[in-house]
Amino acid sequence: MKKKINIKDLIRPDLRNIKAYSSARDEFSSEDDMIFLDANENPFDTELNRYPDPYQTRLKSKISSIKEIPAEQIVLGNGSDEIIDLLIRLFCKPYQDKILIFPPTYGMYKVTADLNAIQVEEFFLDKHFQLDFKEALKRISTHTKIIFVCSPNNPSGNTTEKEKVLKILDNFEGIVVVDEAYIDFSTEDSFSAYLDSYKNLVVMQTFSKAYGLAGVRLGMCFANPEIVAYLNKIKPPYNVNTLTQKEALQRLSSIENVSEEIKLILAERNHLADALKNILWVKTVYPSQANFLLVKVDDANMRYRQCIDKNIVVRNRHTQPNCENCLRFTIGTPQENQKLIQTLNQLQ
Ligand SMILES: *Cc1c(COP(=O)(O)O)cnc(C)c1O
Fold it and tell me: What pTM, to 2 d.p., does this model score?
């Protein structure tokens, strides 16, 4: 069964004892009733003249109550993309360590690894985008530090079975990151329920998809408090700005709107899937647990260009592994989807 995992042993050796930058806002928040002469800010009020809270205390406590995850198990970043970068830098030693990914999947794992001089081991999903986890586990070497599991997966839209992810967690002594950017569109539960059982589990979510705030750049990371403490040490002190914290709090205060939008998007996804299946040149509409559909067509490059000519931008995934002639359609508003269906139906 499960081996004992010591987080400190997994941290990049030169970061184990790193001293964090001690920021002016570490000890007192600008909400405290004090005179702040410590951070060389302009004292005149613009509502933004103060540095943001480096630990986003109010926002995290709101997220904590919604997600039912203790605030000390949350790290927020400038998008999930910053979280991915922080995780790779925290656990992987450049020119030595590796990450393992399962393409076709989100492109930022590899880009970020490349930028940090971390090798990327790729084990492809099969043609139905399923993971052969037994074969995948054979790709682990002594230098494999992180496995990224994207579920629901982008661009295929399917989830990875819970049992498979748990097997990976059981059999791998490094970090398993489950990227749940699309979890709010899925019928599956979040892996955050397993944070207490698996010290090596890290779960990522984002405000960019279901929460409708891609523009604010806010990513969430849920992990055990020890990992969180290390991430807090290495993150840029003011990585989540004041405007972002405000907007996110406001959105969360009317969370029922988010749920309504998700419901509408899911209904539209089913509607669009049905409509696509009736088009002659559409070969396969893959099942989706996300807010997009991956669709195999007769000639993806041609259909992509035809859509552009009609002022509709979709994502061409033709060059991705096992995605030959596949396009990815994000679910739009009912009007946008109707326009898309009309347009596609008229293509020769
Ligand atoms: C869109 C997406 C994200 C979101 O990244 P942000 O930096 O938070 O916008 C993360 N992971 C996957 C798989 C995605 O598709």
Answer: 0.97
